[in-house]
Prior knowledge:
The strands form two sheets. Strands 1-2 form a two-stranded antiparallel ribbon. The chain is globular and about 60 Å long. It has helices at residues 3-33, 43-48, 50-73, 112-139, 145-150, 161-164, 184-193, 205-213, 231-246, 254-284, 290-294, 301-318, 326-347, 355-366, 381-397, and strands spanning 82-85, 98-102, 199-201, 403-405. It is built from 15 helices and four strands. It has a domain at 1-107. The longest helix is centred in the first third of the chain and has 31 residues, at 3-33. By secondary structure, the protein is mostly helical.
Amino acid sequence: MDLNKQTKTRLIQLGLFLTTLVTTTLAGTEWTIGKFIILGMTWDDFLFGFQFSIPFLLILTVHEFGHYFTARYHKINVTLPYYIPMWLGFIGAPTIGTFGAFIRIKESIISRIKYFDVGVSGPISGFVVALAMMVYGFQSLPETDYIYEIHPEYEIFGENFEQRMDGLDTLILKSDLNPARMSYETLQDTIDTGREGSISFGDNILMNLGRQYLAPDDRYVPSSKELMHYPILLAAYLAFFFTALNLLPIGQLDGGHVLFGLFGAKNHGIISRVMFTCFLFYAGLGWVTTADLVNTSIESLGGFLLNIAVYLIVLYWSTASVFKEKRNRLLYATAMFTVQFFVASIFKVEGYTGWLVFSILIGRFIGVDHPPVVDNRPLTMGRKILGWVALIIFILSFSPQPLVIHGI
């Protein structure tokens, strides 16, 4: 690479990293103490956000350099990481400050073993650091007064405020209300009015284990509804989420490379399609049920039918890499919708519509198949064990409903 071009690339990468450091720090302040730039964030507030951004970016960086150093070990032409900043705090919208990071592999990988090594190294490297952060986060929880500083209204309900509030969601009271001067009943009514739109993070196996076995007994252990106020634990949780997302055993995701390495091209194609179908099935489960049909009036029938049409289009888009023929995509979408409709209606179960975005991303853009290789030698026993460890990490880290907006 030309020296000037290389310098320019390095400056772009450094600039993206520094920008992402700023945006994730802003996001950390917004999540943990509820301060936005447009709503009175101070310099001290901003500095507090480093308690989230530093551990989160450390995990992300270790993940990407796991890929990078493994690729370099195999003499694959690869770039340093490109970080992707993303922040909407200027309009009061909460974000995590980034869309992640990526490295560019600038040549074809022709070996099954190399694909496996590069794919598995990132998630496992990042997971080890995220696990350490989770352990530290639970074992160093602040005193219970910390949550009262953020939510003074909770103190009126006592130490077991979450149980006494009957599981109500987090509410930031209006600035002109003083919780200390409010009666229990008035405070309860005020909290009731703020339930809609509140946010909680869905649990996974690891976070549940951490709450049970790592947290001190004499301090408040944050539930999924209060996790956002604990920056190190929030960073670990989000790292688990992205680790699980990367390890989905589908297509060309890191988990897809693991799947390809473990089972070969033919079996990868079968398993990847089965996993994608299960993922898509869960994502859209409950989009439309018989209850919606019963509650639809003649006046709202048009909107009801439009809702179904939009969903069928989403299913159709999601299968672009699954079927080449448009007719097969349409049949697949229709069959998927029909089964989802009856399963959700009969068993009263719902999936997580947020996964539909990733279904489109995987099914239409990333693809459910894996590139072929010239060197198809099977994995060594050590690599096979590592591959199964990666799949176990996926199960431990995966959250069926990672982000829930209540009342919507």
